[in-house]
Write a structure and sequence with these properties.
Blueprint lengths: L2 E7 L6 E12 L2 E9 L5 E10 L4 E8 L2 E6 L4 E7 L5 E6 L3 E3 L4 H10 L8 E9 L4 E19 L2 E12 L5 E7 L2 E5 L2 E6 L8
Organism: Streptomyces ziwulingensis
Protein name: Glycolipid-binding domain-containing protein
Length: 204
């Protein structure tokens, strides 16, 4: 069960945004990721609880940030309820999309798990509901993902396979690279892995 800490920053001006303390693990029904995030000053910032089924679909998502929370799942596309902490303002949404995305590194692992790409030059299009930071406002985005390379590296715990993805935002054409090892993000724009207390899980 990997556990560790990511530092999150603005990918454009490198302003520190949060530290995310996480643990994750595959299970009999899929994969689960839970985390708590702190502000640069050390105050509680939010949390993520994401569970995927064996096909990589989000069967349960609960995200807290600032004074907002979102609960969602893959139902007729993806469906969610967004509320404030008092429960006074609640809105429901449904979009013909594949999954969710957002600030947490969990969403990169989840999208890669959903797509299950093989190394090739071709890209796969995916529609996601982005929960924009910090108020978790939902926005539908289209991306393309391509697995450029999958390479095994020798470590003290045996070979570690690192997958290199190219992710393209289809509305702007902006491209970036994501490096994953199992269920851990090694490098991505705005994300740095600061501490990892056990090796990444290997998906079957």
């Amino acid at each position: 069960m990997p556990r560790g800490r990511y530092s999150l920053h603005d990918p454009h001006d490198h302003t520190p945004l949060a530290e995310e303390h996480f643990q994750c693990a595959p299970g009999p029904s899929g994969w689960r990721y839970v985390s708590q995030s702190l502000t640069p000053a050390g105050d509680r910032r939010g949390s993520v609880d994401l569970a995927l089924d064996e096909l990589g679909r989000p069967i349960r998502l609960e995200v807290h940030s600032a004074d907002w929370q979102v609960r969602g799942a893959a139902v007729d596309g993806v469906t969610w309820v967004r509320t404030d902490t008092t429960g006074t303002h609640a809105t429901e949404g449904n979009v013909r999309a594949h999954a969710f995305t957002g600030l947490s590194p969990a969403f990169l692992v989840a999208t890669a798990r959903l797509l299950r790409l093989t190394p090739s030059g071709s890209a796969t299009r995916v529609r996601l509901v982005a929960l924009t930071d910090p108020v978790l406002a939902p926005r539908t985005v289209d991306q393309s993902w391509a697995l450029l390379n999958s390479e095994a590296h020798a470590t003290d715990n045996g070979p570690l396979t690192v997958d290199e993805y190219q992710v393209t935002a289809l509305d702007t054409g902006e491209r970036h690279t994501v490096h994953l090892a199992g269920d851990v993000v090694l490098a991505a724009p705005g994300i740095e892995l600061e501490d990892l207390q056990s090796p990444p899980s290997v998906f079957p």
